[in-house]
Amino acid sequence: MEKIPILRMGSFLLVTIQVDLYDRLALTLETDLINMVHKTGARGVLIDISAVSIVDSFMGRILGNIASMTRVLDAETVVVGMQPAVAITLIELGLSLSGVYTALDVERGMSLLQTKLGPNDELVDDDADDTE
Amino acid sequence: MEKIPILRMGSFLLVTIQVDLYDRLALTLETDLINMVHKTGARGVLIDISAVSIVDSFMGRILGNIASMTRVLDAETVVVGMQPAVAITLIELGLSLSGVYTALDVERGMSLLQTKLGPNDELVDDDADDTE
């Protein structure tokens, strides 16, 4: 399967990473996500990495890139579900994910976004397809 | 990666299927999901298959099994994001997914569950880990 699905939940987007993010897949995800933020007017992006047990500097950079890109589109990114080993590796690699919010799980991530962004507004385009 | 993550959202569980469900992975998902329903008292399960482009009778049966198992635990299953080609294949295979609710996307699936189940109750175990 060639794409990581992006799910729309209210004014947030949810991405669950379950496969290794090799180069092309990661770049596709970046592009898709930014396009979805633009198309839907989403205010927050939740990236669940609970299934990720091995992380490298590439993945750390991708997460940082996504956060920076969504921020210029006025959305915030929260990385949720990080395994302890992944946190250890990231810091050992010198990647502190600055600019990326983190939360223990999706629910806490959503609360964080709701606190940061205020009430959950309606999206601009209700007919947008959230599966591509 | 050996497991499909199950995300908890309020009193619902969300699973995104992005990889081919070979035998062992599918059985692990079944077991994990049923355990999570039991542990959290979830009232609904959303299975997003928007990334699934090829389906076979095994996958059809797994979805049916999950729906039946969750129902005996007093939860409903909604399969969301099915691609048109997948719907065609399922019917051609003679699998009409009876007993499984379907919805176009996660948001519609959640509305469906909320309509069916009434107000979103609190879960019984707030400290349960939703990443395993």
Please, could you describe this protein's structure?
The structure is a homodimer of 132-residue chains. By secondary structure, chain A is an alpha/beta fold. Chain A contains four helices and five strands, in the order ββαβαβαβα. In chain A, helix 1 (23-40) links the parallel strand 2 and strand 3 (44-48). Chain A binds chain B through residues 1, 3-5, 7-10, 14, 16, 18-20, 48, 50-53, 81, 83, 105-107, 110, 130-131, and chain B through 1, 3-5, 7-10, 14, 16, 18-20, 48, 50-53, 81, 83, 105-107, 110, 130-131.
Summarize the topology.
The structure is a homodimer of 132-residue chains.
Chain A: E1 6-9, E2 12-16, H1 23-40, E3 44-48, H2 57-72, E4 76-80, H3 84-92, E5 101-103, H4 106-117
Helix pairs in contact in A: 1-2
Organism (chains A, B): Spirosoma telluris
InterPro entries (chains A, B): Bact_StressResp_Reg (IPR051932), STAS_dom (IPR002645), STAS_dom_sf (IPR036513)
Domain STAS (chains A, B): 1-113
How would you concisely characterize the structure shown here?
The structure is a homodimer of 132-residue chains. Chain A is an alpha/beta fold. The first copy, chain A, is 42% helix and 17% strand.
Helix content of chain A: 40-55%
Low-confidence blocks of residues of chain A:
122-132
Summarize the main sheet of chain A: 5 strands, mixed
Q: Give the overall form of chain A.
A: globular
Number of domains of chain A: 1
Radius of gyration of chain A: 14 Å
What's the CATH H-level homologous superfamily of chain A?
STAS domain
Query: Largest interface, with Cβ-Cβ < 8 Å?
Result: A-B, 26 and 26 residues
CATH topology of chain A: Transcription Regulator spoIIAA
| Strand line-up in the sheet with most strands of chain A | 1-2-3-4-5
CATH class designation of chain A: Alpha Beta
Alpha-carbon distance between the two ends of chain A: 12 Å
Domain STAS (chains A, B): 1-113
Organism (chains A, B): Spirosoma telluris
Pfam family, one (chains A, B): STAS
InterPro entries (chains A, B): Bact_StressResp_Reg, STAS_dom, STAS_dom_sf
